[in-house]
Specification:
- It contains 38 helices and 2 strands.
- With 636 residues, the protein is an all-alpha fold.
- It is globular.
- The relative contact order is 0.04.
Amino acid sequence: MTRKRKSEVENGGENWKREKFGAKDFEKQYGYVGGGVLSSSIAGGGELESVLDESKNHDKSGNFPQEIVTYLKGIIEMIEGGEERNDMLMSRCMEECSGQEDRLLSYHNSCKVVETIFGPSHVAASDFLRSVSRLKERRILDLFFSGCSAHTIEQLLYAMNPVNTNQDIEILHKFCELVCDNLMDIIVDKNASFIPRALLRITCGLGREASKDERGFNRSIPQQDKSEFASKEMEEELRKTRDRLVIMTTDYNLLSDRLDNSTVSLVVQSALSGDEAVKGKAATRMAQGVIEKIDVNEDAFIASLKGKNSSRVWEKVISLCDEQSRLQLWQMCVGGSKVAELAKDNAAFFFIQTLIKNTKGEELATDIMDDLSPLISSFLDSHKVTIVGAMIKCVEKFDDLQPPLIKALRRYFDASKRVNYRLQASNKKDFFFNVLTWKSVNSGEMDVEKSNVHGSVLLQSLLGLTHCSSLQENIRSFPPSIIKELSINRISSHVVQAILQSNAVSDDTKNYVIKAFEKDWQSLIESPIGSFVFDSVWNSNVFDVSRKQNLMKNLVSIFVCCTMDHLIDPLLFQSTSKSWKCTLYKCDAGLFKKDIKGWVNKWKQSGQKSEKSVNRQVKIEKKKEKKQMKKEEVEE
């Protein structure tokens, strides 16, 4: 969303960049403010006080803190000019702003200056917010609801991450209590709603969200990792501060009528994300809140799933809640005859898709397949490939559920039967290209140019199934020329990469694909699309160190010949040299030339690490599933 700010600037609204007020002018008026000894007149405050008193007479509005803003702008120019942003400088700025925080947060121009001065410093941001927290509660609320001040407070709150002092906790506790006491008014306001979102993330050890700046600037905000707390005691204090706010912002009974409000939706999503970071159960509680009163609120819940903003909340809930809650929601109010209607809705469709993707238990997976299998044709007719892809991902762990799904897909793509029983002819060999081109080719035709994006996505999902062996038979029947053509096509190249990366695809199939390039690596590398396929070949589990070493010898000789041939046509060499340089850099050709043994050891270690990491990840996932199943059995 775009967040608008109020512009209450009267005298201070003009752009302060127009004022030519340099470091020398600043020192003439205020004295030296750096890390050295302060001027006695400034230390005593006499000259500065007289200047401030004088400025009041020139301030037409009587409200805008012109003198302090000018002072802070001078500090900013000094910092930009190379002055160190040290504690003494920040302390001096805080002294000048003392008692004027209210006025500084009342105008857009002064808010911007406060952000610039105190925003980069954790200590300075904390000190400024401590002064703000000492204002009357009514005045703090007014600042929350004002666009410019709410933005500044939000930025200073994020500057306090990670929380590491008792002062930080006191500030957060004060603001959290104030938000909870006025929650229903704050979360529906487009300005004030940013405050609880920031509090929910900071108290969980998270920084700002990785998304486009919601104030309209065309830039991305980098994701910050979860911060570690200074001590267990501090973590416990933050948990107490956070719990009330999380419980209130994820209370279905309290917020059910307002979930489709855009700002309420964002606040609840922030609460769920923060709670996930500390391994809480807010999502499960919210799902159970629906289940407990489903007899009364079923229609309201279905309507909420269809809401533009509320559906995003339920999508988040269903991805984070436990398996038992998913099963109950499916059996009580989502599955059966209602799923067809929900899957057709543009908003509820994402909820259904997310639920299917996050299914872990066989009971729920079986129910999903029983309810959705008859609808596969309608999904594909409307090009809703992602929900079919979610169904494929759902059955990856359950071998018994894969064959019925594959048969349904074969039936739709005209690749499910024998054409001539006497000749034992079958159209199953057409499955790959019928899916890739979305049935736009004749039987036996292999036209890569007709590749379809939806077909490519569906094939990539199918390659993750262990029971889709006939698809691999199709691939092994392709001539090398078709495999090369698939690899340099912008749509079908993703399928080739999926073949080489999938754990479900056999080594024979992967080796067959790689064999097609053995006599012509040059065309693959020089293609801007094929070079990505080369990366997949290099990283494939069947491409061991000895094969890498033999390939490197060929690549170096090919590159030298290429360089000599292209000296006649420099422009041609310039267009192809970038992809060669990138490829040789990724393969570490420099080390290969200097020390072959070192190069071999490097790739051996990387292969062992990747294999160990895969095995470790599989073990971790199995342990998690076992623990989850035990918990659910105990609860039952």
